[in-house]
Amino acid sequence: MKVAVYPGTFDPVTNGHLDVLRQALTVFDRMVVAVATNLEKRPVFSVEERVDLFRQAVDGWTGVEVMSSDGLTVELAGRLGAHAIVRGVRSAGDLEAESQMALMNRRLAPSVTTVSFFPGEPSVYVSSSLVKEVFRFGGDVSHQVPPPVLKALFEKRGSIS
Questions:
Q1: Does position 91 have pLDDT exceeding 90, yes or no?
Q2: If you average pLDDT over every residue of the chain, what do you get?
Q3: Model's pTM, two decimal places?
């Protein structure tokens, strides 16, 4: 069985994240989504809320497990028997940052390969940060996030900054 880990902050999960996950499922038998704590960001949603929102977004999907993670992704991959880490790349800036991360991960765990996927055109420009900013100013993000996330954004409307 081919297992991969898809790590990210996912604050919130977007349709771009789901697109990357769909693509990865064509290559891997089992995908473990690792919702991470990112100490450099101030998330709108708690880790538990992000795990729950991601689970709702992939309800009914086969081969996907969603969990929280607070350590190194390569260590999680080792514990899970995963041979790959999946990353999404939207732009040249992402490519540079992701290549640095992939090289560090290769140094830490040579047996774990990083595989990058590119989101499709409707989602290529979308980031969680952009979704939150547009939503905060009253913009329509209904085409960028799954329905459970849109509902949760409205419930958190006052605390999004």
A1: no
A2: 93
A3: 0.93
pLDDT tens digit sequence for 1-50: 999 999 999 999 999 999 999 999 999 999 999 999 876 778 899 999 99
Annotated catalytic residue: which of 50, 55, 83, 128?
A: 128
Check 2, 41, 143, 157 and give the catalytic one: 41
Annotated catalytic residue within 17, 83, 87, 132: 17
E-strand spans in 9-98? 30-36, 64-69, 84-88
pLDDT of 39 reads 67
90 is catalytic: yes
Among the listed residues 22, 30, 68, 90, the single catalytic one is 90
Report the distance separating Cα 75 and Cα 64, nearest Å. Answer: 19
Q: Judge: domain 3-159, CATH 2.60.40.2970.
A: no
128 is catalytic: yes
30 counts as catalytic: no
106 tagged catalytic: no
Q: How far is CA 59 from CA 56, 104, 152, 157, in A?
A: 5, 33, 16, 24
